[in-house]
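Hi support team,

I submitted a single chain yesterday and got back a structure, but I'm not sure I'm reading the token output correctly. Could someone confirm the output below corresponds to the sequence I sent? I've pasted both exactly as they appear in my results page.

Thanks,
R.
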Amino acid sequence: MLGAFDSPDAWARDRVILTSEGEFALTRPIAGDECILKLDDKEVRRYDCRDSNAPRVLAKFKNVGNYPEILVIQESPKSRECRGGALYFAGVRKSGHRAEHAGSSKVQRVDFSERIPYCGGSVPQLKRLRDKVRMTLRDGWKGRGEAPILEERWSFGGRGLQKE
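Hi R., thanks for writing in. Yes, this is the structure output for that exact sequence:
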């Protein structure tokens, strides 16, 4: 019997977020081990999700620094060991904005932060500041057998991902 997100149509339909630059979709191929993130039907990121359920957007913040929008995304491992999964930020750029990375001439529409390992605990606390979004993690852990996280703060904005 299929669950609500086992159907490829339901999976894709329920994982679309409207942004100022188009539809941001979290999709997964019917066969394969990769989740695909798309902006206006163009792939912007792909990652291994063979042991995960659908990732989800926790929050969307508008007009943060130079970004029209910043999304906070959380992976969702199938394992019962974690209540939540790794987190990352996605800064949606204005159409046609060139990547600021050295040597890149490619038009890049989404800037992704590095993955922040998180295996659950309290729900991440998110706060919009003038030029960045701050995330506070409490009472969790990075993974099985790792020391607990009492409190960690991360921020994402024009200077990328920073641990505070």
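A quick pointer for reading it: Helices lie at 8-13. Let us know if anything else looks off.

Best,
Support desk
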